[in-house]
From TrEMBL:
Domain of life: Eukaryota
Glycoside hydrolase family 3 C-terminal domain mapped to chain residues: 490-699
PANTHER family, per the entry: GLYCOSYL HYDROLASE FAMILY PROTEIN, PERIPLASMIC BETA-GLUCOSIDASE-RELATED
Single GO molecular function: beta-glucosidase activity
Residue ranges annotated for the Glycoside hydrolase family 3 N-terminal domain, each copy included: 108-451
Protein name: Beta-glucosidase
Keywords: Glycosidase, Hydrolase, Membrane, Transmembrane, Transmembrane helix
Length: 706
């Protein structure tokens, strides 16, 4: 019986697993054609052999007919191959490098430039994401889907934009950035953790230059939970103003700077140790992995961003976005080390600082971005600008935008946080490339880095957020960990007017307590900037949490009367028959330049409240601030003094140590000055004469058996 050509074809396909060298149907568009041609010639050869054997029974016409049939089949297969082209970049089994290069070679200039663009959600639509091939979106401080948006609202918003990106020709997903500085702080009812200055104070430090860190596990856990909360909305990039916008690698050397609370310490050793949080955000790097290559370990991890590169904590008089005057040795020994550690730990993105180094804007500093960061430190992730950062290369900002685009991209910035006028950036960069002012290999390098992070983070396989984690936002586990972080961050600076008569821990069982001060019952003041809104808020109506006053009421014995007066006069205090007073004062919320201060005074009526209360009854003063502030003029009136920094939403962490349920264990990660005339003053300086030195912190013994 004549087996026929189709049975030969079936045998070939059945054998492909056994004889891959002969007839493997390689699913690559180029190799597919090569294998197809080989297959056609093989079939022709077999057909000719069959027909020669049967020459006595078949005519030449029949043989030709067979050949024509097979040519027709081959043409159908060719058409099918074109219609179902295999793309390596879509295959997760391919090495990441192969996927990156396969996708890059398919992209047009327009698509590449689109990947370098980050815009704010306020100017985005699904159509914009599709038509301009936008690589990234962000929510700046307070930029939310709608007022009072729930976690589900965030998920739905992100997915709407993402579907626009996925509808493009190549289906490249966008990456979403958010300033998760101390929790998912844009989201109503999310747990708000202490700001970084408080987390830095959880570290045990001594002045022998040996740093035995007591609570690295706590900080690691904090950032795991922050990652879980942010990951629930699939915000896969943290623009941690952060070393969690972010990862904040900045070292604040002058508390007059409005971003000082975003820094863990004045000491680079503490800041370096805190880069462990990268592993909490991105996941533990597997053993044997290459050092310095971005790593994100699964769809529930997030991309971390270290910021701000480099030296922004050392500007003159602490003026935000100003000039850091220092030599290379100081830059490398104080401000640079945490970036090296971040890169070793697999950080995926690094954000450039608004500031200048010795007069040269960081956003245009090719020697430091391309030469040192990418060259010497071998950073393989992508470099992102700050909000309108490239505009500020010129003075006034945006006065020569085409130049700013050219200077920043040539300096080595890969993704630009535009964030509003994106068509202007796209048009200018397109012109610069087509006119040979910006070489194509610089564009390819930028896009290659962006794609690398997107592939490594699993964004291509899991581009859409789901609702499975939205109920994790603000849950009790998160709040308990934040409460622990609060109590371990508090620093006891004074306890009693003499060592033999300590005031703390306070008794829970007394007849009557006075609670006073503008910060005692104000959740917004307690949380500080970067909370719900960019500059924070005042009051208790914008998110959930426990104020310090609320925590006091729930902690004391039922028979104890707690009276709250924001600003009592001395007559009222003296006549109130109070057992003791708790005064909570400090700074109002601020962020960045709005927080720059040459005086560092507490907000009114704080000084009057201290004088009126502490002049009449025994008192403990709790300072809510993002940095050390002027306190020396009042210190003699105060029985006990606590630096609570910006503790966040869980005020019960304050009462945990205030009433002796736990010990005070925090230590100053910043020097507390006597007067602002001493500034800048950091540990190790020759003129070092602080009110409370770096590393200082009194302890207490808890009254609870454990």
């Amino acid at each position: 019986m004549d087996t026929g050509i189709f049975s030969d074809e079936e045998q070939i396909l059945e054998r492909q697993g056994e004889n891959e060298g002969d007839f493997s149907w390689e699913p690559d568009s180029v190799l597919m054609w090569e294998r197809l041609v080989k297959l056609i010639f093989f079939i022709l050869e077999r057909s000719l052999a069959l027909n020669m054997v049967r020459a006595s029974r078949q005519s030449l016409v029949n043989m030709v007919s067979v050949l024509v049939q097979w040519l027709g089949i081959a043409s159908v297969w060719a058409a099918m191959a074109v219609g179902a082209e295999y793309m390596k970049y879509k295959d997760p089994s391919q090495p990441v490098g192969v996927r990156v290069e396969d996708l890059l070679m398919r992209m047009t200039l327009e698509e590449k430039i689109g990947q370098m663009v980050q815009i704010d959600r306020t100017v985005a639509t699904a159509d914009v994401m599709r038509d301009y091939y936008i690589g990234s979106l962000l929510s700046g401080g307070g930029s939310t889907p709608l007022p009072g948006a729930t976690a589900a609202d965030w998920v739905n918003m992100v997915n709407k934009f993402q579907k626009g990106s996925l509808s493009t020709r190549l289906g490249i997903p966008m990456i979403y950035g958010i300033d998760a500085v101390h929790g998912h702080n844009n989201v109503v009812n999310a747990t708000i953790f202490p700001h970084n200055i408080g987390l830095g104070a959880t570290m045990q430090v001594n002045l022998s230059d040996v740093y035995p860190f007591r609570f690295p596990t706590l900080i690691y856990q904090v950032y795991i939970l922050m990652r879980m909360t942010v990951g629930s909305h699939h915000c896969t990039q943290k623009l941690f103003p952060d070393v969690m916008g972010l990862i904040v690698s900045q070292v604040c050397r002058d508390p007059r700077w409005g971003q000082c609370y975003e820094s863990y310490s004045e000491d680079p050793k503490i800041v370096r140790e805190m880069t462990e949080i990268i592993l909490g955000l991105q996941g533990e790097i597997p053993s044997g992995s290459s050092k310095g290559v971005p790593y994100v370990g699964g769809k529930n991890k997030v991309v971390a961003c270290a910021k701000h590169f480099v030296g922004d904590g050392g500007t003159t008089k602490g003026i935000n976005e100003d000039n850091t005057l220092t030599d290379m040795h100081s830059l490398l020994s104080i401000h640079m080390p945490a970036y090296g550690d971040s890169i070793i730990k697999g950080v995926s993105t690094i954000m450039v600082s608004y500031s200048s180094w010795n007069g040269e804007k960081m956003h245009a500093h090719r020697n430091l971005i391309t030469g040192f960061l990418k060259g010497t430190l071998k950073f393989k992730g992508f470099v992102i600008s700050d909000w309108e950062g490239i505009d500020r290369i010129t003075s006034p900002p945006h006065s020569n935008y085409t130049y700013s685009v050219q200077a920043s991209v040539l300096a080595g910035i890969d993704m630009v946080m535009i964030p509003l006028k994106y068509t202007e950036f796209i048009d200018d960069l397109t012109y610069l490339v087509k006119s040979n002012f910006v070489p194509m290999d610089r564009i390819d390098d930028a896009v290659r880095r962006i794609l690398l992070v997107k592939f490594i983070s699993g964004l291509f396989e899991n581009p859409l957020a789901d609702l499975s984690l939205v109920n994790e936002v603000g849950n009790q586990v998160h709040r308990e960990l934040a409460r622990e972080a609060v109590r371990k961050s508090l620093v006891l600076l004074k306890n009693g007017k003499n060592a033999e008569d300590p005031l703390l821990p306070l008794s829970k069982k007394v007849p009557k307590i006075l609670v006073a001060g503008s910060h005692a019952d104000n959740l917004g003041y307690q949380c500080g900037g970067w909370t719900i809104n960019w500059q924070g808020f005042s009051g208790n109506n914008y998110t959930s949490g426990t104020t310090i006053y609320g925590a006091i009421v729930s902690t004391v014995e039922k028979g104890t009367e707690v009276v709250y007066r924001e600003n009592p006069d001395s007559v009222y205090v003296k006549s109130g028959d109070f057992s003791y007073g708790i005064v909570v004062v400090g700074e109002h919320p601020y962020t960045e330049s709005a927080g720059d201060s040459l005086t560092l005074t507490m907000a009114d009526p704080g000084p009057d409240v201290i004088n009126n209360v502490c002049g009449a009854v025994k008192c403990v003063v709790i300072v809510i601030s993002g940095r050390p502030i002027v306190i020396e003029p009042y210190i003699s009136f105060i029985d006990a003094l606590v630096a609570a920094w910006l503790p966040g939403s869980e005020g019960q962490g304050v009462t945990d140590v205030l009433f002796g349920d736990f010990d005070f264990t925090g230590n100053l990660s910043r020097t507390w000055f006597k007067t602002v005339d001493q500034l800048p003053m950091n540990v190790g300086d020759p003129h070092y004469d602080p009110l409370f030195p770096f590393g200082f912190g009194l302890t207490t013994k808890s009254v609870v058996e454990r």
